[in-house]
Amino acid sequence: MLGRTMHGVDYDARRDEIVVPQQFGQAILIFRGSAAGETKPVRVIQGSKTMLTALDRVAVDGVNDEIYVPEGDRVLVFDLLADGNVAPKRVLSGPDTGFTAAGSVAVDPSHNIIVVGAAARSADGRGLPELAIFDRTANGNVKPKRVITGAKSRLNDTGNIRIYPEGGLVFTTQQTGYVAVWSLDDDGDVPPRYTVGGPNGLLQKPRGLDLDPRHNAVIVSDKQLNAVLTYEMPQLFQPITSSR
Amino acid sequence: MMRYFLGAVIGAMLMVSHVDPEAAGASGIHGRLVRVDALPPDVCVWPAAVQWAEQTAGRQGRRAAALPLDDRTRIYAGPPARTVQDRFPAFAAVAVDPARDEVVLTDENLFQVFAYNRLDNSPADAVTTPKRVLAGEHTLIEFESGVHVDPASGDIIAPNNDTVDTLVVFKHGSSGDAAPIRALKTPHGTFGIAVDDRRNEMFLTTQHDATVVVFRKDADKDDAPLRLLQGDDTGLGDPHGIAIDPKKDVFYVANYGSHALRRADREVRTGVPGAGKGRDKANWPLGRELAVPGSGTNDGPSISIHAITAKGNDKPLRVIKGSKTQLNWPTGLAFDAERRELFVANDMGPSILVFDADAAGNAAPKRVLKGPRTALAHPTSVSLDGKNHELWVANFGGHSATAYPIDADGDTPPLRTIRSAPASAPSLMIGNPGALTYDSKREEILVPN
């Protein structure tokens, strides 16, 4: 059921599973972590009840057994163990959420939040890019707890988002050529605390992103370079206790 | 079908432990745009140059938006500790030009288009130097998923699959960082190309919205398609290659099988990616903003056969589909009007399947080119040379293009091979990597493509 045009992937270490969105078939495919060759998914979420429309990315919460799907003006949340034609258990959507163009999401079960990469809703459809932070269990038309956005943030086209809970940091790729890092406590028009890989580094169009705190690694895929680059950043993988 | 996905995973793993020292490293393969200056007023600006300016300005704008960062931001620009990157070209599409004894190949890894001598034959440990190379910012070449060579002029026509959404046309003999002579804006996700010279029409498949759009062969800039084939009944699903049978006035489409319905009368979903910047044009695909939630299916791989004038929600005339077909990510197509045969580059086979022109249903191929001696490696494109009775294949997973007798069957070795890398170089097949994840249990990086 996979194709050559997969835009997202997440790994659930607890269940040892790989979760992949199938954008053309409006499906979420779950494979065993050891899958190789032409292996069938162990579960497939697909069908009329799912509300899945234009999924590009997914995020897995292995602690609470949930899958998050950002889709434009909403975020769908599924039971991780769901299989077949099942409805989402929560839908974060509505004018109070303040976002549209949601293309990425990350979950932090330890801080009980999600971070949505999106754009602010606006009448002319030209809302600024933003990182909107919600309660993890937010459902329906809910306001965000905090929103990082504005000129100083330099937020651009946000790719993947990852959270380092121990350090209270949120990482996101920027097509401007770097990975931007904020504190999970940041709010409003604030600059990133750190950047990785640029600006003016090797990165050109970074999109994919993951963290390997055990090896102090920030791992980035770049669709202009057709490459995977690993940055060793021990200075970021320490608990952040002081404020700016 | 996990192999492609996991192939990249395994490739990445291999690169960590078995990396070819020459293939690694973070050397800057691509030139970096330093600045964009306005042309002097007396310089003639042709349409492609305008599009190039838009494109480069867009890139410049993206990067400019990054600077200056606030003084409070601590910048760690690198370099990376490790880089997994294939420094060799990965051939995605092939078109043989027997009139000029050339083979044209697109490279989706380093964003180039090559013209080789048709009789080139690379030794196993060597790389063949192409006659001409098209590459650079002016060319608009990035992920060129298809290629067609005009038999009369030798001009090269190549659609872009993702990042540029622009089909480019180069005059025969062009090389270097040349601007295309035409640059047509195409729907997002355009993949395959076929040209009907009798009708002066150009057929393109689009993956994302499961369509075939038909343009005038010489369409340029913002021209709208002449026809659109899209809908529940068309049988199209993640379509890739396309080929025309001029004698029976039909065209063939290779489908991976996944698709979802669209409805023009739906309320437009805000904030989801659409079909590109052509929504106001006639015959433009209905994008994901008009998708029906939960309507997605995977119908399995197929070859759908359509009337040459098919449009709207027209049903296919017939469909080749089923377990006997051996279809598995059917990607490139070519049709031999004299032999009445359809050739399929079957990516996951890896194989070249040959069907009778009139095959239908769960039909077995009449020939299957497959086996270790064939050197096929994720074949994604096939082209036919009727003059010299040869079949050409682009091996996306093998750094190679291989030529066979047109009636090759079974485990037949190639007559000749054009290599873009030594045979021993690992082929990473990292193409447009928009995501990744880290498997902390196995300490592996997973990269979907």
What does this 3D model show about the protein?
The complex is a heterodimer of chains A (244) and B (449). Chain A has 244 residues and is mainly β. Chain A has a domain of 140 residues: Methylamine Dehydrogenase, Chain H (7 Propeller). Helices cover 0% and strands 44% of the residues of chain A. A 4-stranded antiparallel β-sheet of chain A has the order 1-2-3-4, with no helix packed on it. The model of chain A has no long low-confidence stretch (mean pLDDT 94). Chain B has a single domain, classed as YVTN repeat-like/Quinoprotein amine dehydrogenase (Methylamine Dehydrogenase, Chain H, 7 Propeller). Chain B is built from 2 helices and 30 strands. In chain B, the strands form 8 sheets. A 4-stranded antiparallel β-sheet of chain B has the order 3-4-5-6, with no helix packed on it. In chain B, strand 26 and strand 27 form a beta hairpin. Chain B is globular, with a radius of gyration of 22 Å. The N terminus of chain B is likely disordered. Classes of the chains: A mainly beta (244), B mainly beta (449). At the A-B interface, strand 2, strand 9, strand 16, strand 17 and strand 18 of A face helix 1, strand 1, strand 2, strand 17 and strand 18 of B. Strand 19 of chain A pairs antiparallel with strand 2 of chain B, so a sheet runs across the interface.
